[in-house]
Each structure stands twice: as C-alpha cells, then as structure tokens.
Amino acid sequence: MVRAALVELDVPPEAALFVGDTFDEDVAGAHAAGVDALWIDSHGHGVPVGARSPRHVVSALTALEDVLASGVERGA
Ligand SMILES: [Mg+2]
User: Fold this and answer.
1) Residue from 35, 40, 33, 36 nearest 55 by CA
2) 74: which of 17, 33, 34, 45 lies 20 to 30 Å off by Cα?
C-alpha cells in the first residue's frame, strides 16, 4: 500500500514520512517500503525491543505540526 501510494504521488521513499498510530502495521509497514515513519504512540508503549525506531515518536497527532515545522530532518 505504501509503495503504491508513493508511485501514485510520484514521491521517492526517501522524501516521504509515513504518519501512523500502530507500530506493527504503520511503522513496520513504512519501513518495509523504505519509508521512514512518525509514530503516534498515544498509549506510551515505546518502541518494541529490537525493533527499528521510527524517525519521530510523538504522543498525539497535534505534535505533527511542530515536527513538520522543524523540517523533518532525517535522524532528528
Ligand atoms: Mg494506524
């Protein structure tokens, strides 16, 4: 699904940031497609042990604006 969306939007994976609220589906799915992710960890579970961390972890969607305003630097 992520790859199909990138093709449809003509966006390379490295230029995209997937925003999602479920680690196993959203973050892992984005990573599988070569896209970095912002995870909305609204329950404060934290990144599962051994899993690749998303580029950003926030507690609520309302934090997305601040992340985007910061320029969404890779590795920030
Ligand atoms: Mg989700």
Assistant:
1) 36
2) 45
Q: Ligand 1 mean position to 25 CA, how many Å? A: 7
pLDDT at 2 (0 to 100): 87
Residue 71 C-alpha to ligand 1 middle, in angstroms? 23
Q: How far is the CA of 47 from the centre of ligand 1 (A)?
A: 15
Cβ contact 7:28 at 8 Å: no
Residue segments in the chain with a per-residue pLDDT below the cut of 70: 72-76
pLDDT tens digits for range 6-21: 999 999 999 999 999 9
How remote is the CA of residue 28 from the centroid of ligand 1, in Å?
11
